Structures are given as C-alpha cells and as structure tokens.
Amino acid sequence: MAVTPAPIGVVPAPDNLASSLNNDQQQQQQAIMAAQDAPDYNPQQQPTPDTQLIDQDSYNGRTPQATYRTYDPAMETLSSSAALSEDYDPPGPTTQVDADIQKLAESLTLRELAGQMTQIQIGMLLDKSGELDLGKAEYWIGEWGVGSFLDTPTNHGGKYLAYSAKRFAKIMQSKRLDSVHGANYVDGAIMFPQQIGLAATFNTTHAYEAGRITAKDTRAAGIPWVFAPILDVAVHKLWPRVYESFGEDPHVASVMGSAVIKGLQGNYKKDRTRVAACMKHFIGYSGSRNGQDKSSAWIPDNYLMDYFVPPFQAAIDAGVATAMETYIDVNGQPVVGSHFYLTELLRNRLGFEGMLVTDWAEVDRLFTEHRSVPSLKDATAQCLRQTSVDMVMVPESESFAKDAVTLVQEGRLDRERLVESVAKVLQLKKDVGLFEQPLSDPALLPLVGSQQDIEAAKEAVRESVTVLKNEEGVLPLSKKANGKIFVTGPAANSIRALSGGWSIKWQGAEKDEWYQNRGETILEGLRHEFGSRSVSYAPSVDFDGNSIEEGEHGSYLQAATEADTVVLCLGEKPYAEIVGNIDTLDLPGGQLQLILNISQRVRGSNTKIILVLVEGRPRTLQWLPDHVDAIVMAYLPGPWGGHPIAEVLSGTVNPSGRLPITYPRGPSDMGANYYRSGIDPYKPLFPFGAGLSYSTIEYSGLRLNHPELHTTTYEKKDVGDPGDLLEEGKEAVGDENDDGEEAEAIEEIQMDDDDSSNAAQVLKESHHHHHQKRDTTTTRLRKHPSGLPPASISATIRLKNTSTRPVKETVFWYITQDYRSDIMPEAYMLRGFEKVSLDAGESKDVKFRIRRSALAYHGRNLRKRVEKGSFTLTVNAMRPEAQSIKFNVV
Known about the structure:
Elements: H1 17-20, H2 23-31, H3 80-83, H4 99-107, H5 110-116, E1 118-121, H6 134-143, E2 148-150, E3 174-177, H7 195-201, H8 204-220, E4 225-226, H9 250-265, E5 278-282, H10 301-308, H11 310-317, E6 322-325, E7 329-330, E8 333-334, H12 339-349, E9 355-357, H13 362-368, H14 376-386, E10 392-393, H15 399-409, H16 415-431, H17 451-464, E11 466-470, E12 485-488, H18 495-499, H19 522-530, E13 535-537, H20 555-561, E14 565-571, H21 589-602, E15 608-614, E16 630-633, H22 642-650, E17 697-704, E18 708-709, E19 731-733, E20 744-746, E21 749-750, H23 759-774, E22 793-801, E23 807-817, E24 830-838, E25 843-850, E26 857-858, E27 864-865, E28 869-875, E29 883-889
Parallel strand pairs: 1-2, 1-10, 2-3, 3-4, 5-6, 6-9, 12-13, 12-14, 14-15, 15-16, 18-29, 21-27
Antiparallel strand pairs: 7-8, 11-16, 17-22, 19-20, 22-25, 23-24, 23-28, 26-27, 28-29
Helix pairs in contact: 4-16, 5-15, 5-16, 7-17, 8-9, 8-17, 9-11, 12-23, 13-14, 14-15, 17-22, 19-22
C-alpha cells in the first residue's frame, strides 16, 4: 500500500476502511481495545466497520491513506540506564509552536476553537448498544469539532476509534487512556504493580520499563496520550488513591515519577511506540484534611512548595508533555480557577510549557460545587481568564464550548486566548504523529502481552514484596521438607484482588474470568513453587469479613490444624477514587477475627502463620501482629503477582522491597509521615523504609570528604569544560574540588529573614528574575576561591553482605538540619537512595553527593533558602543499622 502523508488539518482516513485495512489492522481495531466493560466480552466477535460512514466528499476528492512506521525492536537504542542517567536530556513539549500549526489554529472558527479545547468521553458518540450514533457524531464532531476523546468505548465501540473523525471533522481527535499500571485498558496487555508497589522496589529501572511497555501497548491500541503518572504524595493514609501514588516521600515520587515519564515518552516526537505522558494532579490533591477523596486541602504554602511541588518540578525537568490540574480547592482556592496555582506557580515558577487539561467536569464544579461563580458561563470565564488551562474535560456537556464562544462574542474573553491554547492542543497532536499516522502500527499488535513483558512485570513484583516481620526466621519456607501449606483468606485465590482498581474497568474487574487466564493467584503461585500436593486451600471470609462457609467455624480451621504453615491472604477489595472512601483504616472485623480464630486453633502446635497483605493503603492491624509469625506486604502487584510472592516465601527470591509509606499503628497515625517535625510523635507499626531480607548486611565506615559546606553562590569564568556550562535561567554552584562534577543548578536561595513579600509576589519576582537571566547571553563565571569550604561534599559508607545469599539492598540518605530559625526542621528528610546488588560475602562502597539544594527549604515568605548551621547526615534512619555523621554549613 502506498504511503501518502496527509497535509496538516486533514484526517488521513481511508476511503473504504474495511477494504483498506489489512487483516492485522482489522483485527487490531476490533480486538485490541480493552472493551471489557461487559462480562461477555469477546474481541474476536466484534463487528466490522460500517463502510457507509465514509463520505469521500469531506476530503475534497482526496483519498488519503494511513501511514505506518513499522515497529523495529532495533529502534530501542536508548537503554533504561542511559535514559535514567543524569546526562540524559529528555525531549520536552514543543515550546515554540510550529508555523503550520499556528496558521491552522488562527484559521479556525470560534466554534472550532472551542471544540478543540473540549474533551468528551467516547460514550457521548454511542447509542445504548454501543454502536456509533450518527446524530451524536454529527453534533459533537461535525458541529463542534471536538478535539479529544477519553475513556475506553463499550465492548462494541473500539472499532470506531480508527476513523472517529471520518466525514465529520478536518482535524483528528486526540485520544487518551488512564494507563496507570501498564496499559490496563488494553486487551492482553501486561499490568505492572500499582505505583505504590513500583515505589517499594526503589529501583528506577522498573519504573522506566513499566513506562516503556505501557507506552508500547497503549500505542498498539491507537492511543498516543496517557493520563499518567500520578505525582501526589500520600500524606494521609485513608486517602483512597494511596496505591496510585509513589508513597509519602517527595524525593521518591520525584525520582520514580521521572523514570516512568522517561519510559512513557522516550523521544515521543519521533518514536511512535511512545506516548505523551501527563503529570497529575496539580496540586495538593492528596492533602485532604480528612483523608476522603475530593475533599478540601489546607496546606501551608511553604509545605506545598517543599513536599507537594518537587515531584511536579522533577516531571517538568524530565520533559513531561502534558499536565492535569486537580479536583479540589487548596486553602479555599479551587485550583481549576486559580491564577496563583495554574499560572503563577505552574507556568511562571516551575516553567511548565506543555498542554494543561482539567480533570473530570472541573470547570462546571466552579459553579455546582465550589460555588465560586453564579453560573456555568461564569465558571468558563473564570477558568479561561484566570488560568492557563488548554483543554477542558467536560466530559458530557457542551456548556463549556458554547459559553467560550459566547464569552468571546460578548467581549468578555479575547479570541487570542482560545487560539493560544488550541495551538498547544494541535502541536501535541502533531508531536505524537496524529497528522501523519492516525492509526497505530499493526506490527505492535503481536508484541502486546509478550512473555518478555510478563517477566518484566514479575521482576518488578519480586523487588517490591516487603517482608515486615520474620519471627525466628520462619521465612523462607523450606521447599525440601515435605511440609503442608494451607492457604486461605479473601486475597488467596483472586487475580482481581492482586490488581486493584483501574484494571480492565475503573473500579477493577468484577470477575477473575475477565482476565482470561492472564495472571496467577497467590494460591496458584504457591502450588507452582511448592507443588500442588503440598498446598491446600479452603475459603474462609470475604473482603468485608463475612463468612463464606456453612457454619460458624468451617473446614478452614480443621485444615489449619493439619498444616505446618498457614498462609493468610488478607487485604482490600478493588476500588478507585471516591468509591474507596473509608472512615477507618482498620481491616474489617471479620478478617481480623479470622486471624484470631486460626491463631487460637493452632496454639501450642508448631504451625506457623504467615500473613500476606494485599492492599492499596496500609490498613491498621490492631493486635494482629502478635498472633502471626511473619508479615509480608504485597501491595497491589498486578495479575502476575502470585508467583513472585510465592518465590519470596520460598526463598527463591531474596526480598528487597522497602515501605515507601509509613505503616500506621492506630487511628492517630493516619496523617503521620516520617518527615514530621521533631516534636511530633512517630511510633508507627512499621516506619518508612522498613523491610527485611534473608541476608545480613554490615554497614561501616560512614565518612565525609569534608566537614563543611559553603553556601555562597560563585560564578565561574573562562569556562573550557562543557561540564561547567551554566543552564540558562539558573544559578550555579561551582567547586574546584568536587571531582569534576557538573555545576549544580539551583534557584532562589536566600539568606535573609525578610518576610515582607507574600507568596504571589515572590512567584512574580521569581518569574521576572528567571526571564532576566534567560536573556543574558554573556554570563561570566569564576571559580570557587581556594581555601574556602567546598559548595558540595560527598559521603561514603561501606556495605558488606555477610551471608551466603546474594542480596539487593537499598541505602537511604537522610539529612536533618539540627536547628532552624524560620521553619521547624523535619526529623529526617530523604535526599537520596540507591539500590545495590551484593553477592555473598561481597563488599561495596556507596557514595552520596550532598549538594546545596538538598539543604534548602521554603521559608514563611515562600523564598527558598539555605540556613547556616549544623546538619546531620543519617544512613537508613529509623532502621537498626542507622548511622549518622555531622557537617556544618558556613
């Protein structure tokens, strides 16, 4: 088939889709979309496209054809290690709109401009049976030229994604999916652990690979844009989106989130196996006062900047293409209508230049819920006049588009405001290839769900599983002894429980059968690992704690008494967002009672009880830990988690997962994070970073190469080494003694105590200062004067594996300011981590660079500053092997 690139503004759709698509392409369009909303989903029985829907006249006599770049594995030349290195400069959003795109945006009518800024859910084009409704398509695409679709279609709707614009529009719609732990809505794609599990690996390679494979599989479904990753820090343990986050620490969220973005995007403007990523939800979404989803947040501005903003800044630095604002109000300001948050902070301070989209129906909520304005039209006016929003997820109403047009006609809104945003919308479409290649590459189809991808997901699970208790070394279980293992609990034999929400459906799959044998339960994994004869199973209670046996005490108790080991699999049933709101972190009483029943029945015997927790947030266990011999946190590992969990229990895998979130002891700990101030109590059940292995690691010789660090900013002149070049718009710290390391970029360090400027004014000053420096082309730099302390120092510690097992060990580097005059210092603050592989008996030195940015904080006036004084560097704080050393900032 000849390849004919279509001009900008014309949808390259075949004149007869059914005959133009080859068999692979037809199968792809009919089968690849998850379309699994109905339990009787069968991708092989999808109807073929209706060729009557093609109108040749709409293409001005042209017969454009879709173009493909055939997938070639050799194109994956950028390894994860290279992409994650500090030297890698990822491509970001196009900052200067291309001339043809600008011309196209300016040529559109008001209705077309408003339409391009509108995102609707795909169901708005379909009838109740899931078939394309021509009247609805004519209205939304033909009359309004809607710019974007979201969500998967019904089980009969996937066929329409290939030619959604057809005769109705001149610009291809962008489509997006919530591919949040793999391409979780694409049939046959491999799901990875939810983000909280990825964080537990403390291994950026797994985050990168999850992103890369997610992108490939989402692209195979014809979707070039995903709403991932989520970068909110999980500061409240009740929050139902904890499992979608990277945990409570801003540095972990920054590093792991950036790795996912690099995996998703790669060089997305050229590589059509990659997608545009979307960082969400900006900003403060997880800071809910009561832990409930979509509740108001009260967050001091300096806390916001120090704890909530860093992951988003890191994502911007990683080149994230798009961003999504948040549902909520922060300190009384609805974010979707806030000039401060979406213009001053996001655009001016942080430098985001990509496309910004709202969350679900957020503009309408300015009127219906936030009560900021007296009408829907005023809601549209506030959003467009006060913020930098480019696309509005309506998603089921035309009020935004109508009101935007009316506002321009009434003179309340400039047409150029719409043109500016539409140019970004169209530029993204061009960058992801929608104008040249609207359909996906059929060569990607056979790569979806490959064995290689399954192994990548399993390896991530292996490194995420976290052993929290191991009384008397009960783990690992011996595979050689002829012991009997009894398995029970609601999570024991359920793939849907392992996967959680956002898996096939928004609230998770309703039945295990929907996974079509793609996955392995914990029971199946144990039988795989120990043999079917050694492993028995009986049901006991469901996730709500209700008995699912006849009689008060059924066969599970008898089976427990006959076993050498009982593996109890407890946790949470699937949920997502507001549906997951709860009032208490306690596990349901029936689950807790199950533990007590079995513990009392086997008391006095040699039977050991292993508790495996399959949960998206840390549910409090009350007195339960005293009644079990081992506790294993599995998080939500995904469909393929069963066997890796069993491998950890058997010792085939030496566990290396660490908690990326504080595990609370009781109700008073729901909002406790390890980086609380020193006066706040912190006595959790398990602290941040907890986790055991089957090896013993000896830490020794913590030392610094210099006891003092200097804060003054020095310029360098006569630069000859490219490593000394100063990034435009930033200040630099240079030191002739810092081992040739590139000059550090840091912004707005202040040493004064002036509190006269408010937050908005400081952001404006920062923006002005930023652009003043950006325009400077003759910056003169000079070397740090000799004789003064260096502007960065390094720490080293030695690790030795004193056991006979190879091990992967995560080293955590925390910095504490001993005294701080402006804002109370944190008890600890994680500034770096590294996962190290050690063979049996092997020793390694691990190094950490202490830069000035690691000492900075935002004061009461929102200025970022470093305060002179004493600091403490602690390795593996809150763990038995913790070691500390002092240094001074002068």
